[in-house]
Amino acid sequence: MSENNKKINRRDFVRNTVLLSGGVALLPSLLTSCNDDNDDPSVDYTGNFGFKEGVASFDPSATNVILWTRYTNADNESGDASLRWEVAESSAFSSLVASGTVVAPATADYTAVVDVPGLAANKKYYYRFRSEGTKAESVVGETKTLPTGAQASSVKLAVVSCANFQAGLFNVYGAVAASDADAVVHLGDYIYEYGAGGYGTNATTASLNRAHQPATEIISLSDYRTRYRQYRSDKQLQRAHQLKPFICVWDDHEYTNDAYTTGAENHQPNEGTFEDRKRAANQAWFEYLPARVADKTKIYRRFEFGNLVNLLMLDTRIVGRDKQLSLASYFTAPGNTFNAAAFANDWQKADRSMLGFDQRTWLATALGSSSASWQVLGSQVLMGKMYIPVELLTVVAQLAAGPTLALLAQYSALATQLSAIKARVLQNDPTLTAAERARVTTVLPYNLDSWDGYPAERERVYAAATGKKLIALAGDTHNAWHSGLTTNTGQRVGAEFACSSVSSPGLEGLLAGNTAAIQGFEQSNQLLIDDLEYLDASRRGYVLATFTASNATAEYHYVAGLDTENAVTTIGKKVVEA
């Protein structure tokens, strides 16, 4: 008997079985490509049609949430897809809260987006989509609206960043899906632009079938769409989207590496104009990661979690960033001398910006007008100061170019010397010489792509947050950090919780994966960098940030590895800010 002639409705059987067990279906393949359940007997739909990329929700507010899906046409379907969407308070959908139809147009890569209004605050909802043609049905998604006033005594945010498909399995997304987070804050690098065999590729890429598609670096709109579809084919990422509302901003790799307003390190003249590439990347981002904004060039926006958290999502990458400085350009011959005066002049210019005037003005107003217990910045890049002794800069740069045993030994010896001196400084050792003190107090930022490269603007942000309890959330570095936020005069104004990556390799690559070297690196940096309180330089994971009226707590969760599916995490560190 053919699949199309079966009397038992496979989709209803699967759905009812799951509902009777009290669960919600997690595997999109179970409820899609349902060519055995077409209500129009005159049409026999064929092919692998349905909701292959799952479902997702975005930008929750107290009354609204954005629902998303993508539909793949049957072989004998053509044109835009008409979809029905439904929202209910129970997974049985016995009584609908809201419903309607939405078009998944070919011009938007068959993605469908609907901003559902009229919802109750601080409430969990279930949603689903169904094709009005084939009757294929999506999995059931879950989402949650934001609280108002004192509705919630705590807010839990899963903070993630930097997922490279080629680098391994998305176990971190699986862990986030299984967590009790109210929402996911994604700080960017949702995709990577490099081609197959490029950045992120390792010994397991081929065996896990995770080489990038298309095989080339992505430049055109079609390229970006193909890459997003590949990432959204990952079942653990689908599960995270299915079970948690996401609040997203882009970083550079959604465009191309080390991007700024008018260009990028990884954009070359033979790849067309940067404006054309930026336009294509922007369109694909909104097709797959919708945000509630009036102007799609401006993704900075505000989320109010009752009277607890005022979450301000920033764009530190595209809308207002001046080109990054490069330390290498300040080393001059003969003797490869560093021109400290020229660097300081450029680095400390008052008008150097990552935000741009409009965003900076908006941010200052949003900070000043909020009475929430916590002001929380969703900032792609590290805000805390990472100033290291100048002596170490050259060795770190050489390690970045390619670690060797000789360089590792050199770094270890120098870091050990400087750490010993710094310990004596902290102990007020009276025998310390001025020359020794200078070795650990003559410091410079090593990462000028972060807020460290824009110190004057960082001071303006701190000034705007005066009198507030400030927490910065950050990603970008592929490693986990906890730092104090201090002004140029040393005043502590807040703290930073910076997550590791979902899969992108971190600083362990500079240290050739040597466990002893990694531990030494972590310890020496925590001693030598004044504001740094915790660093994990080798593991992949996420931060679970919990906010109450009195405390902000960060749990640093790590997965065991990326080569075998396993979403179990261990907590490497727990910090509390009051």
Question: Total helix count?
Answer: 12
CATH architecture term of the largest domain: 4-Layer Sandwich
Provide the CATH topology of the largest domain.
Purple Acid Phosphatase, chain A, domain 2
Q: What proportion of the residues form beta strands (DSSP E)?
A: 15-25%
From the helix content, strand content and strand pairing, which structural class follows? alpha+beta
Summarize the biggest pleated sheet. 9 strands, mixed
Q: What is the gyration radius calculated from CA atoms?
A: 25 Å
Q: So what's the overall shape?
A: globular
Describe this structure in words.
By secondary structure, the chain is of the alpha+beta class. It has 3 domains: 1-145, Immunoglobulin-like (Sandwich), CATH 2.60.40.380; 151-385 and 453-503 and 540-578, Alkaline phosphatase D (PhoD) (Purple Acid Phosphatase, chain A, domain 2), CATH 3.60.21; 387-446 and 506-530, no CATH class. It has 12 helices and 26 strands. The chain has helices at 10-20, 171-178, 221-232, 235-243, 274-288, 340-347, 357-369, 390-401, 405-426, 434-441, 455-464, 515-528; strands at 55-58, 65-70, 81-88, 96-104, 111-116, 124-131, 141-144, 155-160, 183-186, 245-248, 259-260, 263-264, 301-305, 309-313, 331-332, 337-338, 374-378, 387-389, 443-445, 470-474, 480-486, 492-498, 532-536, 541-547, 552-559, 569-577. The chain is globular. The model is unreliable at 1-37 (pLDDT under 50).
